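Morning F.,

Quick status update on the modeling queue. The single chain you submitted on Monday has been processed. Sequence for confirmation:
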Amino acid sequence: MRVDPVTLEVFHHRLAGIAEEMGLTLMRSSFSPNIKERRDFSCAVFDGAGAMAAHAAHIPVHLGSTPLSVQAAIRCVPMRAGDVVILNDPYAGGTHLPDVTLVMPVFCARRRRPAGYVANRAHHADIGGMTPGSMPLATDIFQEGVRIPPIRLVKGGDLDQDILSLLLANVRGAEERRGDLLAQLASLRLGATRFGELLSLHGESHTRVLIRQLQDYAERLTRAVLRTIPDGRYTAEDLLDDDGCGRRDIRIRVAVQIRRGAVTVDFTGTAPQATGGINANVAVTLAAVFYVVRCLATQPIPPNSGVLRPIRLIAPEGSVVNARFPAAMAAGNVETSQRLVDVLLRALARALPKRVPAASNGSMNNVSIGGFDPLRDRPFAYYETIAGGAGAGPSHSGVSGIHTHMTNTLNTPVEALEAYYPLRVTRYRLRRNSGGAGWHTGGAGIVREIEALADVHASVLSERRRHAPYGLLGGKPGRRGENRLSRGSRTRRLPSKITLPLRCGDRLSIATPGGGGWGRQK
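Structure tokens below.
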């Protein structure tokens, strides 16, 4: 049965509206600034087989990876009405440990099998581990925090207090973590209610048909996009600065084969997995490919599993894009994902030189600070990614001071940061002349300086401190980022990845990279 285009479009917006409303509920009811202010979360709706049906416009790195979490939950835990499964393990459907995913089945009346699922993923400001913020210079997954395999957090509508107590006993800022988890649960309940209303309106079998045809539509649009790329094999490579544990210039190599509306993305030749936590799993690598393919579209493509059908991914096991247990993975989700996008776009620029922009700043510029807050008499953990410059394109200069590619968060407002934590923002401005020159200039990065008002610990995970964001077609590279620590009148440069103590009065400055320029200068 073919559904007319108008009905299908209305249904698509209803599904997407469920995910968006879930996101609003999560944002408004959460406790931490990272979720409430920065909106570091994603919400999605899935069909009865666990294939993605709709995803809100939240975090791109979650787009291609959340479905693997849902499928892991379905595979590992038989779910009944009222159950909610929790997980964060990168080796069981997760991405990195701070990203906690909750999955809830949705049933039609008198049915034993779920008609679909709702899920959300939120980055918790701490999930345990060796440093506050759970983004340390780790050498294995055990040092990074609490690993949660797919298990029931809620059974038949009742929250399992034993599991919650075990989890909260191993994280910093337990009350904030509790509030954020309860906000995730509230978001799921709202999503399940809305999805149930949709099932009541259309019936289970017709809803299944509508979702399948929406996925088929996304597949057709994706194949149409791929057909605009000349058939051929396009290669590129780029380097990660380091892994934070002494290894430098970690190569990511890709070959993109376009053929008759399908694409094979092959990362053979990419460096072996690293000692430090820059390793990505297949979920993160797939998310980067998913994102880049959708970026090539000239019209919106519904973000569902149909987009993935024309895509074949080859990610060698044991490489930095498909690491083996027990590799550390904190930065794989945030830093390596950005470099994956850079190298994919660089390859495709050979096929589409008048469509693909230069490299953006290429780092999420992660900062975690935590310890004990003497004023509020409680432990705390603060986490943030800091924006940079976007790459210039064929028709425009790059945007300055913006989160690009695999991150889609906001900043933490200065007022919120200073209200919640023993921290003060002493500088926050655009970084002048940091965008690469060219016919169109790359966007400028940001300088954000934070003063510690108590003795705390800080972790920085960043990239593009050694290898600048590339320009295209004669455009110049963007300026590399810099991390600095000021103590009194003395200032010293910090490496791209570091964990260090901050004394009261110390100032940590993050100057983010600018975007690359496009075309030769006028």
